[in-house]
Amino acid sequence: MDIVLIGGLWLDGSAWDDVVPELTALGHRPVPVTLPGQGDGAASATLDDQLAAVLAAVDAAAGKPLVVGHSAASTLAWMAVDARPEKVGKVALVGGFPTPYGRAYADHFPIEDGTVPFPGWAVFEGPDAADLDEQARERFVAAAVAVPETVARGVVRLTDERRFDVPVVVVCPEFSPAEAEEWVAGGESPELARVAHLEYVDLDSGHWPMVTRPRELARVLAKAAGS
């Protein structure tokens, strides 16, 4: 199966470099997406531009792909499902939940000179970054791409209720499946609360398992693709 991989804030397509060979070895065709404004050299981009890049990958895929969204890009993956409910076979959300209709895509970090730079590790201390050693943190910061304000403040639009019929796997890295299920049941993710086929999968890692647990993440995604 083709597996479309979308990294979260500050990540370009190379974030999946250690996951790609693992997925390939498991018999799948990984398709990492470098989002406009996040590694393609463009000075600016909009949320619509990023969605268009994801949809291009979905449309070019063989059959019905698994679309994987990490962190904030869980919303991009969900927007792609909304735009192509008949084309996407399944969606996997890694460490993130879809932003509801009418809300800003990712406006919870400071904006500086029209972009959202990586804010430093202080805001991620604890379970998010506990498995990143100093060397890994340095590599992450060196590769981080400031996200255009026009992406972060872009408004999420969802129009096709057929999205709720597409199966969803919530991959739980720095939180547990029980916690995620409780959050959804408590109304913290109104989109996921309406999904007909929803599954929670544990992954013992921090917020960036493609960096710290690429083999384990690949196995989880391969299992999701094959089920």
Automatic annotation (TrEMBL):
Keyword Ribosomal protein: no
Pfam families: Abhydrolase_6 (PF12697)
Residue ranges of every copy of the AB hydrolase-1 domain listed in the record: 3-219
Keyword line: Hydrolase
Classification via InterPro entries: AB_hydrolase_1, AB_hydrolase_fold
MF GO annotations: hydrolase activity
Name listed for the protein in its UniProt record: Alpha/beta hydrolase
